[in-house]
Design goal:
Largest sheet: none
Number of strands: 0
Oligomer: single chain
Number of helices: 12
Length: 247
């Protein structure tokens, strides 16, 4: 499982609707494949959430892999509620339940010393390290999950847009205009970019406008793929939340 989807994978994801998973309830190969694609796409938010709990990168990676293996392997979504149909909500609830089970397992293992213990916490027997103190300035785990979710959506949308500009000429223009999508335009002048692309400034302004519009359209598609239905109101609500969580 990778946190860096290829443009091809990102494009394929657009055909994978959370609706398909909910309707089939995991009882078909199509639903199983759809769930697998959704999980693979949103590995990063789950890892970030688990890392805030385990506070150990290696342990967090192991738990994240185990979580997704269980979710995909079950082929059943009995706890997925269509009334709360955002895939983001389902995934966060599922990982919380998974971690609760892991803690119960830790407690049971401690009561039965003959069984190996894999704790969610760091090894407290190592006295060479400082005590594990939570960073009160760090965002809450739920907030960090949603922030990573938003960043993942943006990264995947950029990957799709880049794939649409994969010819030599289009790729050069996309890379030159990309800062106006990512906000990294400090010190960059449109007149300079226009000269580099052998275009006039008006044409560059139009190209930036079209690129931004296409980016918004693709982002809406990404969001719609994780909702119970591609309702414009639901998409707009999720889009607003995505913007607010990144501020």
């Amino acid at each position: 499982m990778t946190t860096h989807p290829s443009p091809r994978g990102a494009s394929a994801f657009l055909t994978t609707q959370w609706t398909r998973v909910l309707q089939a309830r995991g009882n078909s190969e199509e639903a199983h494949a759809a769930l697998g694609a959704l999980c693979e796409a949103y590995y990063a938010p789950v890892y970030a959430f688990i890392l805030r709990q385990a506070r150990d990168e290696e342990k967090a990676r192991d738990l994240t892999q185990e979580f997704f293996a269980r979710v995909i392997g079950r082929r059943s979504l009995g706890h997925a509620d269509p009334a709360r149909g955002r895939f983001r909500s389902y995934l966060l609830g599922a990982v919380k339940h998974f971690l609760a089970d892991a803690r119960d397992h830790d407690a049971a293992a401690k009561r039965n010393p003959g069984q190996p213990i894999e704790s969610l916490n760091r090894d407290t027997t190592d006295t060479s390290s400082a005590p594990d103190v939570a960073d009160t300035r760090a965002p809450a785990p739920d907030v960090e999950f949603d922030r990573k979710w938003a960043l993942t959506l943006l990264e995947r949308t950029l990957a799709i847009l880049a794939a649409e500009h994969d010819s030599d000429e289009k790729a050069k223009q996309f890379q030159a205009l990309k800062p106006w999508l990512t906000g990294d335009i400090d010190g960059i002048r449109q007149s300079t970019v226009a000269a580099e692309l052998a275009m006039n400034e008006t044409t560059v302004k139009v190209a930036i406008h079209r690129l931004r519009r296409r980016f918004r359209d693709l982002l809406k598609q990404q969001i719609a793929a994780t909702l119970p239905e591609p309702d414009p109101a639901l998409v707009a609500d999720e889009m607003s939340y995505l913007v607010s969580i990144l501020r």
